[in-house]
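Quick one:
INPUT:
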């Protein structure tokens, strides 16, 4: 089915776009339905990229005639019968821990995953073949290791695999971020010049409040920082620590947390941003360190933003966290401020170790997706007065990067790349 024919089908559907999708999902094997139905249930809070990905998948399903689709999915249906899925307490409506546990405990789990991947890749390939090619726009990721994180210049970038160019900053390293967000032209200005720009194209994720102070316009970006989110984080952490070690009860409790009205703890200046709120709650419930350490929040939020929103530009800024307190249970996400009477003590050295590792994780997150071929990556260590720049190979071959540069030059290289659309 061509994209034009697909658009006609959607416009003619009496129940609208979601009704068409639900009908298509009912044609799929049982174990594929929870993920798809979960996304439809949250349609209004999905990022534009997430919606486009679902539309693409549904268009791919529709491109098969009934007999071809049946032949494609038949091996998985037979495998589900062998696994005994029809006898499980398996939810079709949403992803649950119980679903994941049942699948993972099956002796046929590896075969199941292979079948799911085969079906998914075939459907996506069919969707691509019927879609018009989209333009490849330049993208950018900027990671800041701030002045208060102690780094020595020597050997700072040794573990980055030689993928980029090390640049000594001749001037105030903090100016690089300021110029990118406030200069002429600035990154936000370049993005606003393009048709279809919307806030999820620009993310600012900060362990402190610096990025928000440099670019305070919440209407033109998705901006998250740890101090603003602290009341919400502490409340969610409190709720999570009520979950008993029981899968079924855990599913109920997690669903309750997701559906809670968090208005009382959500920052006032982020009011009305339902997709961003869902993103933060999902992040807090995903079992990583984002609930405990600010630097972990920066890394996980950046990686998830890249995965789920595919922003044109991402700024991530690390900071100083407190030292872990003795005799507390970080592993089970306890709030150290409440379970220990010891005062918080800043840990610059430990925070620097965290940030140097997590900064590379953000780059690895970028590399996972096809968009990396159009993404420039910049990491700035303000205390070492050093930057590391990775341009896509096709662009780097035509770009001369000096080993010593002023902040203005570095900003010009990055905005020049972004403007090259």
């Amino acid at each position: 089915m061509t994209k034009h024919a697909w658009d006609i089908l959607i416009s003619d559907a009496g129940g609208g776009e979601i009704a068409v999708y639900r009908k298509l999902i009912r044609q799929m094997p049982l174990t594929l339905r929870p993920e798809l139905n979960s996304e439809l249930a949250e349609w209004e809070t999905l990022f534009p990229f997430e919606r486009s990905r679902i539309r693409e998948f549904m268009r791919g399903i529709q491109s098969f005639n009934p007999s071809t689709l049946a032949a494609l999915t038949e091996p998985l249906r037979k495998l589900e019968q062998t696994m005994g899925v029809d006898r499980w307490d398996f939810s079709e409506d949403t992803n649950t821990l119980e679903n994941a546990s049942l699948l993972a405990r099956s002796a046929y789990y590896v075969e199941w995953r292979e079948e799911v991947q085969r079906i998914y890749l075939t459907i996506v390939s069919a969707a691509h073949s019927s879609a018009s090619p989209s333009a490849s726009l330049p993208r950018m990721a900027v990671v800041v290791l701030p002045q208060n994180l102690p780094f020595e210049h020597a050997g700072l970038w040794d573990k980055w695999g030689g993928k980029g160019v090390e640049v000594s900053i001749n001037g105030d390293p903090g100016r690089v971020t300021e110029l990118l967000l406030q200069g002429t032209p600035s990154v936000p200005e370049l993005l606003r010049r393009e048709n279809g720009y919307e806030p999820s194209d620009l993310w600012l994720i900060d362990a402190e409040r610096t990025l928000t102070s440099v670019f305070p316009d919440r209407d033109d970006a998705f901006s998250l920082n740890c101090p603003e989110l602290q009341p919400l984080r502490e409340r969610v952490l409190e709720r999570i620590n009520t979950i008993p070690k029981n899968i079924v009860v855990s599913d109920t409790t997690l669903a309750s947390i997701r559906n809670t009205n968090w208005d009382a703890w959500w920052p006032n200046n982020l009011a009305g941003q339902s997709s961003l709120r869902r993103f933060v709650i999902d992040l807090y419930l995903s079992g990583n360190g984002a609930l405990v350490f600010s630097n972990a929040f920066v890394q996980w939020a950046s990686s998830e933003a890249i995965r789920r929103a595919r922003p044109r530009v991402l700024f991530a800024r690390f900071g100083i966290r407190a030292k872990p307190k003795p005799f507390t249970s970080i592993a089970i996400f306890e709030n150290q401020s409440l379970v220990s009477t010891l005062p918080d003590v800043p840990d610059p050295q430990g925070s620097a170790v965290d940030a140097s590792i997590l900064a590379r994780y953000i780059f690895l997150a970028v590399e996972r997706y096809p968009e990396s071929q159009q993404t420039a990556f910049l990491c700035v260590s303000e205390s070492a007065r050093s930057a590391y720049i990775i341009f896509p190979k096709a662009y780097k071959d035509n770009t001369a990067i000096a080993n010593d540069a002023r902040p203005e030059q570095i900003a010009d290289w990055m905005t020049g790349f972004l403007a090259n659309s």
